[in-house]
Design brief:
The chain contains no helices and 5 strands. By secondary structure, the protein is mostly beta strands.
Length: 138
């Protein structure tokens, strides 16, 4: 058995084998949560609170909504010479390449510019309108 940084112990057989039916309505079993540690530190790494696993009590009411795709998509598209190089236009965000920069109050994105293994950087205050450095347009 291995123990994660937050005290959760993973089963010896990993990934666990189960009889989960992806077409059914039952939730997928999560065997490593059957016996959670008494205290789970949440001051390490990022936490996404989508269930009650880390929340003991709350007066909040959870509500769910269908996602709505933004009508103005795509928000990032090839515009500069670099992004349209070699006749193969592309402006594709890198995996995990968009994040909020608290210090500067904007989103930052690293992305593939064209299909020639070149990377570029863009910023946005709203995640919809992206500004590229002027140097990319030369």
């Amino acid at each position: 058995m291995s123990t994660l940084y937050n005290g959760i112990q993973l089963p010896a057989a990993w990934p666990p084998q189960n009889t989960y039916n992806p077409g059914g309505d039952d939730p997928m079993p999560v065997p490593y949560l059957d016996h959670p540690p008494p205290v789970i530190p949440i001051d390490v790494g990022r936490q996404l609170f989508v269930d009650d696993f880390l929340i003991e009590e709350s007066s909040l009411r959870r509500s769910f909504h269908q996602a709505v795709k933004y009508d103005g998509n795509p928000v990032m598209y090839p515009e500069t010479d670099l992004e349209q190089e070699n006749g193969l236009p592309a402006a594709v965000p890198r995996s995990g390449g968009i994040w909020w920069d608290t210090e500067n109050g904007c989103y930052r994105m690293w992305y593939d510019a064209g299909w020639s293994n070149k990377y570029a950087h863009a910023t946005s205050v709203d995640g919809i309108i992206w500004k590229r450095p002027a140097a990319l347009n030369k």
